[in-house]
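FAQ

Q: What does a record look like?
A: Structure on top, sequence underneath. For example:
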C-alpha cells in the first residue's frame, strides 16, 4: 500500500494512493458506507497505532463520480468514516501537487458529501471552498456529569459539530487532557439528548489582536484536532452568520489549540446556509509503502 503523509497546521493526513479495498462504483456516500461497514480492519490497520498515529486522518483516493473533479476521496480516522475533512483536503491538494498530478490553480475534489473546490495558491497554501454549511439547532443545553449544564449549537460543516462558545474550560494547551475529557463527556450528553454529533468544539477568546479566537476540537477517535478543523470552522461560520456576528466576505483568522491558523470567510449558500472558504497550509512529510505481515500480531492495528 503506497501512502503519502502530510500535516496541515500540525494535523496529519495520510493519502492512500494504492492498495486500499475495492469499494465498487456509485455515489461516494455509498462507497463510504461500504468502507465503514465492511472494512473496519483496514481502517484501524492504516489509521491506528502502530502503523498510524494519534489524530491521523486517512484520505482514500477513489474514482470521482463528478468527471469535473481531479480526484475522489473518502476520509476516515481510526474511529469513523468522515463526511468531509478540511485539513485533509488541504493536505490532499498539497500531496497531489507534490506528485505532479495537479498544478497550482483551481480544482474540484469529490467527497461523500459532495464536490468541494480547492485553489492552490502555491505548493503549500490552499483555499478550500466547502459544501454548504448550516446551523441545525441553536442553544441546546445538556447536563454533563462533572460540568453541569453546557449550552451549545449543533451545526453542520461536512461533519456534525456541537459548538460550545464560550468554552467551559480555558482553551489553553496546558488544558488539553481536561478539554479532551470534557469533550468526551459533552459528546455523550449530546448523544443522550438525541443529536448524533461526531465532533465537539470548545471556543475560546482571541489570543492576539489579529485573530478571532482559539478553539479546541474533539474528533471521533477522541484525539484533538491539531489544526483549526476545516469542517468545524465551516460549522462555526454558519453559526456566526446565523447570529449576524460576521458579515459575508469578511475574513477572520481562527487559531487551533496548538496555535496553527486558518483564514476564514463565507458567502451565502443556495439553500439558506453558508459556503465557507478556508485557507491554510500543508507540508508533505513522508512517502511510504505500508507492509501488512500476516505474522504481525498487530497487523490490523492496536484494538480500541
Ligand atoms: O479539518 O475538517 C477537518 C477535520 C475533521 C477531523 C479532523 N480534521
Amino acid at each position: 500500500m503506497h501512502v503519502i503523509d502530510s500535516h496541515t497546521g500540525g494535523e496529519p493526513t495520510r493519502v492512500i494512493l494504492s492498495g486500499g479495498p475495492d469499494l465498487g462504483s456509485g455515489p461516494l456516500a455509498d462507497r463510504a458506507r461500504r468502507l465503514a461497514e465492511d472494512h473496519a480492519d483496514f481502517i484501524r490497520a492504516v489509521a491506528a497505532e502502530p502503523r498510524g498515529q494519534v489524530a491521523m486522518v486517512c484520505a482514500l483516493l477513489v474514482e470521482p463520480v463528478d468527471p469535473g473533479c481531479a480526484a475522489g476521496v473518502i476520509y476516515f480516522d481510526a474511529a469513523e468514516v468522515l463526511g468531509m475533512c478540511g485539513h485533509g483536503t488541504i493536505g490532499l491538494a498539497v500531496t497531489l501537487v507534490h506528485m505532479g498530478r495537479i498544478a497550482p490553480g483551481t480544482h474540484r475534489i469529490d467527497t461523500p458529501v459532495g464536490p468541494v473546490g480547492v485553489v492552490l495558491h502555491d505548493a503549500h497554501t490552499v483555499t478550500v471552498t466547502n459544501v454548504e454549511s448550516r446551523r441545525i439547532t441553536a442553544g441546546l443545553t445538556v447536563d454533563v456529569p462533572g460540568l453541569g449544564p453546557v449550552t451549545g449549537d449543533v451545526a453542520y460543516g461536512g461533519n456534525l459539530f456541537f459548538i460550545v462558545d464560550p468554552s467551559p474550560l480555558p482553551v489553553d494547551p496546558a488544558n488539553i487532557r481536561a478539554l479532551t475529557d470534557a469533550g468526551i463527556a459533552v459528546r455523550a450528553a449530546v448523544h443522550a439528548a438525541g443529536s448524533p454529533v461526531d465532533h465537539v468544539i470548545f471556543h475560546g477568546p482571541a489570543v492576539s489582536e489579529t485573530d478571532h479566537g482559539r478553539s479546541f476540537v474533539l474528533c471521533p477517535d477522541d484525539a484533538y484536532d491539531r489544526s483549526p478543523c476545516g469542517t468545524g470552522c465551516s460549522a462555526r461560520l454558519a453559526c456566526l452568520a446565523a447570529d449576524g456576528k460576521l458579515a459575508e466576505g469578511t475574513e477572520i483568522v481562527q487559531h487551533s489549540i496548538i496555535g496553527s491558523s486558518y483564514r476564514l470567510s463565507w458567502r451565502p449558500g443556495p439553500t439558506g446556509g453558508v459556503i465557507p472558504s478556508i485557507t491554510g497550509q500543508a507540508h508533505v512529510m513522508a512517502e511510504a509503502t505500508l507492509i501488512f505481515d500476516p505474522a504481525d500480531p498487530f497487523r490490523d492495528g492496536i484494538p480500541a
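Q: Is there anything notable about this one?
A: The two ends are 23 Å apart (CA to CA).
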